[in-house]
Amino acid sequence: MPRAFTPKVVTANHLLEGDVIYQTNDGWTRDLAQAEVLDDEAYADLRLLEATQQRDVIVGAYLADVEPTDAGPKPTHFREAFRMRGPSNYSHGKQAEL
Amino acid sequence: MYHYNDFDTAFLAERNAQFRAQVERRIDGSLTEDEFKPLRLMNGLYLQLHAYMLRVAIPYGTLNSAQMRKLAEIAERWDKGYGHFTTRQNIQYNWPKLRDVPDMLDALAEVDLHAIQTSGNTIRNVTADHFAGAAADEVEDPRPVAELLRQWSTDHPEFQFLPRKFKIAVSGSEVDRAVTKAHDIGLRMVRNAAGEPGFEVIVGGGLGRTPMIGKVITPFLPKADLLPYVEAIVSVYNLLGRRDNKYKARIKITVHENGIERIRELVEERFTAIKAQFAGFDQELLSKLEAAFAPPAFKTGNIKGYEAARLTNPAFASWSDTNLSAHKADGYAIVSISLKAHGATPGDATADQMRVMADLAERYGHNELRISHEQNVILPHVHKSDLPAIYAALRDAGLATANIGLVSDIIACPGMDYCALATARSIPIAQEIAERFDALKLEHDIGPLKIKISGCINACGHHHVGHIGILGLDRAGVENYQITLGGDGSEDAAIGERAGPGFSADEIIPAIERLVLGYLDLRETANETFLQAYRRLGAAPFKAVLYPAETKQDAA
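^ Those are the sequences you sent over. The predicted structure of the assembly is below.
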């Protein structure tokens, strides 16, 4: 049996800044909590396709697993947690900016 | 040192102008990412987890003070005030913005530096012994040959689309400080029976997912034959190397699958065919390069002040015991500046620290600096009478950690804190191990011990050749660390053996502590190093201290 679809967000890096961004209903955000959560596989694929076409804005879009919470989506894998926060050796990246 | 001639300067200016235009075309949408990516990689620009990363080549690890100051300026102006020195004698900037990169490259060009071929399937930055030109045990300074190889390989039309990346390392001594046996081509300078200098040529070494110790393709290559012979090797690999499978595309697999005898035959055949084309101009260039790398005018003078400082200042004595190496000139020493302060990120230097090191090199060190593959900085030529002043300046800059070659002098790749390929973090593990052994105050009792950490199987942290290697993996969504034992990156190179099941991030520091304290109990004398004890006893007693519960169960 195929594995059940789990909630996702579309994420990528910003072309000019290089930093991590997430797709919202009408654009992009640097705050995962503001991202659009995708519960339906076909719709998620469509949103990813739409993101990929914005080639002047973003690089390397993909679907990342999240866990929806009252405070917005949260990463389920440590890689996505680092992307959301920044490196652990300095307070650089998103943890210093948001 | 080598300084760019008009040709070099014009070539680099043209290349930088091309890249500036490519960046503009990417930004205005004329180029897609698929079109742009190979172009940016050819110029050292990666896209990592949090940002772009610019990898700048430091050819054969040699810098002058002006170059180091420029690296500091770039770190401050376009990055976050620091740079990361890597195991391939490069410096990486972790936070550039795409629009700024052409300006960064132009700034580098002002001091004869570039980022060309620090990525992509090309011949990468040629690395060398970081004690080159200074080591007491050296046959010859390997840098003229390394510069010859750099000029030959840069934009070489035949070798811009190799099956995979290609790394060359050169050592001027029989003692191998350049890990030549873990490179695609390793060149180790030796003398033949007649006393003439030449190279032992090693091919097909490499780490990564399939670690291999390189094989000797010829035990003695006359220096004059170097360029055609190396070209023959790369040429044979270019045709024979596999392009069907990225993981089998390195020359180590080509050598493994075809056998060193077959490779040797093909290389000899190609060498014979092309040798005549190298009709002496390479040797003319080499002799010019040898003149450019002539040793500085070493001074003479008494070293009583140095000896007195050793007697009166125990911290200075400890630092000079661990951080100095034998120099070929009387009264001189090679200073290794540790970028491994306990708890700091291995290989990172702030812009201020870079300037301190540049100033010291200018004032006391004949204007020369080196970057080691072990992620430290070297002042290669220092008169011992200047050591107390150098130590004091380093101490004030947080650069006087007395730990070269010890347990806290850890190689660590950037790992998942920065790298898009990583499967786990490396830096925090290195930080915690260093802090733990510093707290135990056992570092100097433990003696020489190389711990090397990689955050994925690509092995940028050289874990396979660490006396203790640590490999970070993703096991079902959790960081997990495997330990290898008995690796060695020297002329007696060996690949470490996996000790057993991996450890969680919480378990790995206590595991390393058990292992090292266990070694202290196992060693025969205080002079027997970890690696010697491991070679004498084998893996079993070390595994027993790493996995006490399992060992008890087996015995029950």
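Chain A touches chain B through 25 residues (CB under 8 Å). Residues 8-97 of chain A form one domain.

Shout if you want it in another format.
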